[in-house]
Amino acid sequence: MNRFTSAALTGVLLAGGVMAVAQPTQAAPAPGGVVAADAPAVAKAAGKTSKYYFLFNKNWSDPTKSRLYYMKSQPGKDRKIDDWRAGSGNGSTNECAKNAGWLPTGTYNVGKQTTRKNGGEKGINGYAIPVSNKWCKPKPGQRKVVRDALFIHSEMLPDGKQGRKTNGDSPYRWDGAGDYYSLGCIKLSPKDIRELFRTANKHGWPKQLKVVN
């Protein structure tokens, strides 16, 4: 059951009112809480405001069936413009499980998007949106860790096309529902991430991602 209640959504919206297996390699945190290669883009975005933002709603019964919303901030209750199925993590709801659990709850800065990211076979390719690092909130007995190398992305070639079908699970091709699993990033199907880009290009690119329970 999705524990994101209407009351919780209303609270988030009124307050100001998100990646299987494209195995992204993990980088050391950079100053400002972003991966070094993407630090300038995320820092630039953080200095601006936007009436649009991403909202990732965690699905506790199945993390691969969570939802990513494109929201418009407005007086009263914020408005949903569009939404898509999205996964985060390998099925674990432990936000302190590095390279495994879903994203920690909280607000993230959104960096400069690209349709041509080239991360290689063990990285992220094609359509990608970097988001800032986040420290997890550990439960008793857990160690606090920073979740880094985070993106909203899919599985494709660096040029945005689908790779050739293989006998196994190709990191350059969307092979099915199992590809909603990730190392912690937010992951959409190729069709949906293209639609997300069209929506954001039409209305405006968000500067924030809000991850909620």
Provide tags for this entry:
LD_TPept_cat_dom, transferase, 3 helices, alpha+beta, disordered N terminus
Sum this structure up briefly:
The chain is α+β, with helices and mostly antiparallel strands and about 210 residues long.
Summarize the SSE layout with pairings:
Blueprint (H helix, E strand, L loop, with lengths): L5 H9 L14 E2 L3 E2 L3 H8 L5 E6 L8 E7 L6 E10 L17 E4 L4 E5 L6 E7 L2 E2 L10 E2 L2 E4 L32 E2 L2 H14 L4 E5 L1
Parallel strand pairs: 3-13, 11-12
Antiparallel strand pairs: 1-2, 3-4, 4-5, 5-12, 6-13, 7-8, 8-11, 9-10
Organism: Streptomyces capitiformicae
Protein name: L,D-TPase catalytic domain-containing protein
Pfam family, one: YkuD
Question: What are the secondary-structure elements, in order, as H or E?
Answer: HEEHEEEEEEEEEEHE
Radius of gyration from the CA trace? 16 Å
Q: Approximately how much beta-strand content do the residues carry?
A: 25-35%
Q: What is the structural class?
A: alpha+beta
| Count of folded domains | 1
The proportion of residues forming helix, as a percent range, comes to: 10-25%
The backbone outline, from C-alpha atoms, is: globular
Separate helix tally: 3
Provide the residue-averaged pLDDT.
84
N-to-C CA distance: 12 Å
Largest sheet descriptor: 9 strands, mixed
- Low-confidence segments: 1-8, 12-47
How would you write the strand order of the largest sheet? 6-13-3-4-5-12-11-8-7
| Number of distinct beta strands | 13
Keywords: Cell shape, Cell wall biogenesis/degradation, Peptidoglycan synthesis, Signal, Transferase
Protein name: L,D-TPase catalytic domain-containing protein
Signal peptide: 1-27
Active site: 153, 185
